[in-house]
Amino acid sequence: MFDLSISEIAIIAIIATVVIGPKELPRALATAGRWMAKARGVMANFRTGLDAMVREAELQEMEKKWATENDRIMREHPAIPGDGAVPDAQMEPLEGQPADAADAPEPADDRPAPPSAGDAKP
């Protein structure tokens, strides 16, 4: 990220030890760590907001494409003139009387009968 070599890091550590002092160095490093964490949090928040804006822009672009495609399809396949709206399909009764359940034949049972409790298996 910053492209620091080992020798540059060693020089920074020596200067920090001399300037800050060995007693205060851990506290200074902890403070620097907190600042870095806050900076990363702000950058992550910024990145999340930016990604959301990009997704919104892409969604709006796709909605425009879908609307133009829908308009093109509606122009190519217009509704039936004079019909207004297509009526919903209606169910109409069949001719004749409905069959009673008593008059209907019972379904055939082709399954073998279960063995009785007295049958023993050899």
Q: Any overview of this molecule?
A:
The protein is mainly α. It has a domain at 6-76. It contains two helices and no strands. The longest helix has 52 residues, at 25-76. The radius of gyration is 41 Å and the shape is elongated.
The outline comes out as elongated
Number of discrete helical segments: 2
Q: How helical, in percent, are the residues? A: 40-55%
Please give the oligomerization state of what you see: single chain
Number of strands: 0
Percent strand: under 5%
Computed over alpha carbons, the radius of gyration is: 41 Å
Low-confidence stretches: none
Write the layout of secondary structure elements.
Blueprint: H1 6-20, H2 25-76
Keywords for this entry:
122 residues, mainly alpha, 2 helices
Brief account:
The protein is mostly helical. The chain has helices spanning 6-20, 25-76. 55% of the residues lie in helices and 0% in strands.
